[in-house]
């Protein structure tokens, strides 16, 4: 199986940046998001698609988004814009390309084939640029596992809540009730494929408490991070997805106890009166990883 | 590149540039009208960049009006490319 470059960025927050907005494009990496999503799709008017595509391609060559994962969301391949987006963006090899409204296995295989044909034309490898798939329809939710495991290039999937709510004909979508099943289904598919999974945007920019509640909820569900639409949302989501000092201390204690017990051949033991076994150690290691703590230094 | 019609790209937003291009008769040369909020510091550089880009597209005869609101180099190049492709009716993947 093809080996794909491993992602090395944290993925708590991914900031959407409209592809036709030079000011935001040039400042995208300064706000502290883990990644930027340069958007050629919903954030761009239909009569400015050419303009945005050209602007983003020039920005990708010129601007250093150092420290940020750079993803470009292209238009769907069946729109009049999708193929031109791929032809222009793929040769520039951003860290990842985000494919909206993927619904079936046939569709993802067709798009990845197109991407790889473009890479072949430019004598580029197939193992550098990652593919992120957006699930935004009921049909996509039903097929998400097959889509997610189609290619090792797919290293993240995400839920597009607004489009999904529309596809489900939900009148009220802001409380997340209607898309809850989809969230869980998409998380499970991602976990089964051992890839990352991103939550949808929180559209009420003024409601910081609501954003925090939603971020805490989706963290409990197993999401890796969340797409955001305003720099004001970064700090809250990053905070939710960063382990607290208490969590870090507890995790370090578990890992240290595990190392001690392992040396004595003991697999199950107790820390502060609570049973610790392999899955608990695994979760503790994940906490330390999220906190950028090297286990060797404990 | 053969220009067929008037076209424009960009905006008056901060960090952007509005570029209008218009075909002129063959042999008329380039007429570039440039205004910029950073005219004093970067006007000459802007003009050089626009001429260099026009050389790249092989456009010898054109009237261009550039209204710059502090755009970076990639934005200038992108808006000029868009305006030229629209004027040459070469733009693809967009709705007019």
Strand order of the largest sheet of chain A: 1-2-3-4-5-6-7-8
Integer count of domains of chain A: 2
Shape label of chain B: globular
Helix tally of chain B equals 2
Characterise the protein shown here.
The complex is a heterodimer of chains A (298) and B (96). Chain A is an alpha/beta fold. Chain A folds into two domains: 13-240, Alpha-Beta Barrel (TIM Barrel); 245-297, no CATH class. Chain A contains twelve helices and ten strands. In chain A, helix 11 (245-263) packs across helix 12 (278-290). Chain A is globular. The model of chain A has no long low-confidence stretch (mean pLDDT 93). Chain B has 96 residues and is α+β, with helices and mostly antiparallel strands. Chain B has a single domain (7-87), classed as Ribosomal Protein S5, domain 2 (2-Layer Sandwich). Helices cover 34% and strands 26% of the residues of chain B. Chain B is built from two helices and four strands, in the order E-E-E-H-E-H. Chain B has helices at residues 39-56, 73-87, and strands at 7-10, 17-23, 30-36, 62-68. Chain B has a four-stranded mixed β-sheet. In chain B, helix 1 links the parallel strand 3 (30-36) and strand 4 (62-68). In chain B, helix 1 crosses helix 2 (73-87). The longest helix of chain B is centred in the middle third of the chain and has 18 residues, at 39-56. The mean pLDDT of chain B is 94. The interface between A and B is medium-sized, with 25 and 24 residues.
Secondary-structure blueprint:
The complex is a heterodimer of chains A (298) and B (96).
Chain A: E1 13-18, H1 22-27, E2 35-39, H2 49-62, E3 69-73, H3 82-89, E4 96-99, H4 105-121, E5 130-135, H5 138-142, H6 144-148, E6 154-159, H7 161-167, H8 180-193, E7 196-199, H9 208-221, E8 225-228, H10 234-240, H11 245-263, E9 269-271, E10 274-276, H12 278-290
Parallel strand pairs in A: 1-2, 1-8, 2-3, 3-4, 4-5, 5-6, 6-7, 7-8
Antiparallel strand pairs in A: 9-10
Helix pairs in contact in A: 2-3, 11-12
Chain B: E1 7-10, E2 17-23, E3 30-36, H1 39-56, E4 62-68, H2 73-87
Parallel strand pairs in B: 3-4
Antiparallel strand pairs in B: 1-2, 2-4
Helix pairs in contact in B: 1-2
